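Exercise: predict the fold of this chain.
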Amino acid sequence: MLRGSGLRSVKNLASRRFISTSNAQIQYTSLSNGVTIASEINPNATSSTVAAYISAGTRAEHPYNNGIAALTTSILASGYENGVLLSSENTKEVNGIIAQTTNGNVQEAGKVIAKILSNPTAILEKADYASAKTRLSALAESIESNPSSKVLEHLEASAFQGYSLGLPTYGTSESIADLQAEDSARLLEKYLVGSNIVISASGNFDHHALADAVDAALKVEQGVKPVTKTASFLGSEVRMRDDTLPKAYVSIAAQGESLSSPAYYVAKVAAAVFGDFDHHSTIAPYTSAKLASLVQEYHIVDKYTHFSKSFSDAGLWGFNAEISNVAAVDEFTHFILKEWNRLSISISNAEVARGKAAVKTALLRELNSTQAVASDIATKVLLTGYRASIKEALEKVDAVQTADVKAWAQASLWDKDIVISGTGQIEALLDYGRNRNEMAMMRW
């Protein structure tokens, strides 16, 4: 027991040391073709990550080629070459080619990334396109077969109907089946241009040496970053009732904040005020949020998670829940939406302080590896043009006051349209009008 405890302490100490030193100023280099190289040096990192991200994702797709961005990136970024492990990351707005390696091999990782970006067509021609489609289709089906992830995917699709932001991140089985290598070529021709690429890196290395290695090997055309149609939120609902499932899975959200919104961190704090709850957790009886104490005595909900999800030009703010007591679905949605009302009128300083602490903890926890840091750098630079340091982010969270949360809720939640998504045994999830009316209350 002592040895196990000691190991955990060493691991936690290493994690804290990583976070405390991963706060250096980001170093930038702009190449002549428009590509940006951005890195954050961490002297305590035991390995390094170099990654190339392009602004594409489903924002570069339509319903008939949905999944092409994720498919193309997964083909380009796979395998092991010269001490560099390749993988990919795909979201609705960016696609990343990730190279993980030792600190001493960073220049080689930069050359591997440059080689992929310089001649992606050759890699696509040699790849087994059919097998890659099969793997992506299996991933898309796994998301659709998991009720919780299915509800969230359809929540976004309903909220942003008619916009590419609402398309599934990995496509659907139907859309993937029709994809061809020519679709990948067209995607790369339009989106793989200098001004639409950020090469990010994190670890213990020399930034200028990495930049020189990439610059010498990279052959990418200059080009203007493609314009993306701004997404618009639509109050709506989607119901996928399935009484063969053991629970009800429900998600409700209002329009949230974009990544560049001045209220970005205010919305994060507002979501953290209600936080997460898991009835089966050993600490459930000690969860301090008022909402948790309301729902746990009579086991109204198994678990719920509040979120504030932001994209470049839009956002969603809401919750996702699993409910085995399916007769209590309406009671749960009533309690939770009434708590949302409280954000506008009676939220306390103590609740906001706890929410701020939770947001800061989450920010630090999310950036606990070089890959996570590299991903955060590239995503923020591509989508907003700037990436705040951890210190800046924590200061912005600390600056949020109770009055800010109330003002945000009054402007963004009180009597606003919502989007609803549900699957499983959702007979007790009452109609849209009933839940929409819960977004306000009589005041006197």
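Check your answer against the key: Confidence is low (pLDDT under 50) at residues 1-11, 13-21.
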